[in-house]
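Changelog excerpt

This revision adds worked examples to the README so contributors can see how folded entries look when concatenated. The first example is reproduced verbatim below.
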Amino acid sequence: MYELIKKDGLAKRGRLHTVHGVIETPVFMNVGTAAAIKGAVSTEDLQGIKTQVELSNTYHLHVRPGDEVIKKLGGLHKFMVWDKPILTDSGGFQVFSLAGLRKIKEEGVYFNSHIDGKKIFMGPEESMQIQSNLGSTIAMAFDECPSSVADREYMENSVARTTRWLERCKKEMNRLNSLEDTINQHQLLFGINQGGVYEDIRVQHAKDIAKLDLDGYAIGGLAVGETHEEMYRILDAVVPHLPENKPTYLMGVGTPANILEAVDRGVDFFDCVYPSRNGRHGHVYTNQGKLNLFNAKYELDMSPIEEGCQCPACRHYSRAYIRHLLKAKEMLGMRLCVLHNLYFYNTMMEEIRAAIEAGNYKEYKEAKLAGMNAGKK
C-alpha cells in the first residue's frame, strides 16, 4: 500500500508498505545487478550507508546462477542475506540491448545468452515466473524498450504490444501469488510507460495502463540518448496522467541534478548505475560538484572526500590515500569511492524527503544545484 504523506507543488513525499518493510519516498534504489553492488560492497555495507531498496536484474540472474537455483536456496533475500525490499527489473531492457542477438514476436522475445550463446525465450509469463522464483518485493512488467529514435509507426506498434504484455504479466502475477510454493505471495507489480519522445503516445499509454490498477508505475525508455530537456518535457507531459496515489518510478535515472528535477515533477522512485560506476573510476560526488580523485592535485590532500560526510570513506580516509589506492589498482580504493557515492545519493534522498515535508523543496533544489554547479567552474 502506498501512502501519500505530503505534496509540495508536484513533489511527493510518500511511504510504500511492503512485505519486506516500509520504503520512504522519494527513494534511490541501489543497483546490484547480479545480487551484489559492483565494487566489493557487501550487504552489511548497504545497511550502513542508508540503503532502503536493492535492485537486481532478472535477466542476469536467470542466466547465472539461474532463478531455479535461487528459488531452491530460499529466494533472493536469503541468497544475498538482505532483509529489506528488493526490486527486480523484468529483463526487458537487457533483452532489447542485445539487438543483434534477439527476435521480437507477439508471444515474447527469442534471444541468445550473452554468456554462452544459449538460446533463450522470454515473454511476459516467463519474466513473471523468473521474478517469482527470485521472490523480490517488487517485480517489473516485461516490456519492449524501443530506441528513442524509433519512428512513430514502430513506436505505436511497440507500445500497443507492451500494453498487451502488461495485461499478461498481471494475470500471471496473480496466478503465481496464489500458489502455495511461491516464495513471496505478496509480490508487487509495477507497469512501465513507453513511447520514446512522442508526448501523445506516452500520454495515451499512461492513461491506458493507469486503468489496470497496478501497485506502481514506471516511466521507461528515457536516459537512453535523448537530451535532459527532452526527458523533462516527457515527464511534464506524462506524470500527471499516472495515478498520484501510486509510486512513480523513473527507470535508470540518473545524475543528482536529474533526480532533483524529476522529484519536482512528481517522480518518487529512482535507480541508476552512475554512483557505483563513477565510483569505480575514481569519480566522487560532493555538494560542491563531482571530483576526479585521479587528479594530481589530490596527491597530498589529507582532507576527506567531503568535509562533514559520515560515510565509511570520509570518516577514516583522505583523498590522498584513496587516490593512491586507485592509482595502485587496489580494490579498496574503488570500494571506498562506491560507498561514498551511494551514501551521498541516499543522504540526498533523506534531504529531499525532509524538504518536501517542510514545504521548501524548490528552495532546497535550487540551493543544492547551485552548490554542485559552483564546483564545475
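The second example, added in the same revision:
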Amino acid sequence: MTDRLAAQFAFLNEADKLKSVLRATTLCDGSRRENSAEHSWHLALYALVLADQAAPGVDINRVIRMLLLHDLVEIDVGDVPIHSAGGTAHGSSDVQAAEAKAAKRIFELLPMDLGHDLHALWQEFEAGETPDAVFAKSLDRVQPVMANLQSGGGTWIEYAVTPQQLEARVGAKVTRGAPALWTWVRAQALDWFAKV
C-alpha cells in the first residue's frame, strides 16, 4: 500500500506542473493567459454542463476523465496553439511523437494498473475515433472559441485568424461531435468577425 500511494502522489505532484504551463488563450476577461490546468478543469465543466449536446450513447463521465487528462503532456511539450503561424505546427508528427513520449513518462509514474488505464484513455482521446473522444475533442475546440469571444478577440487578433481558418481548424472538429453546438457558436463567431 505504501508503494502504491507513493506512486499515486508522485503522479499527482507531477500533474501540479500543468498549472505552470501557459496557453495562448486568455481568460474570458482577457486579464491573463490561462494555464493548461485551468483549461482542463474548464473543459470538464463544459462536458458536465453541455452533456445534452453529446450524441446518444456518449458517456459523459468518460469524457470528463479524458478532458482532465488530455493536456498532461503539455508538462513536457508545452502548449502548441492551433492558430499559431510559426514554429512547431499543431498536430504535426513531431508534436504527436513528443506528446506520446510525454504521456508514457507521466502515466508510468502511476501504479501499473492505473497508469495503463489512464494512458489508454489519453490515447483514445488522441485517436479521436470513439463517440466519447469525438465529443471530448469537440469541446476542446469550443472552449477557446468562447474565451476569444468573451475577451474581445484574444488570440484571434494576435494570430490574425480569419473566419475561413476558424471553420477549417475548429468547425469541422466540433461539427463531428456536437453539430448543434457548432451552429450556435459559429453564429456568435461570425457576428464577432463581422464587427471587426
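Reviewer comment on example two: The chain has one domain: 2-195. The first helix runs from residue 2 to 15.
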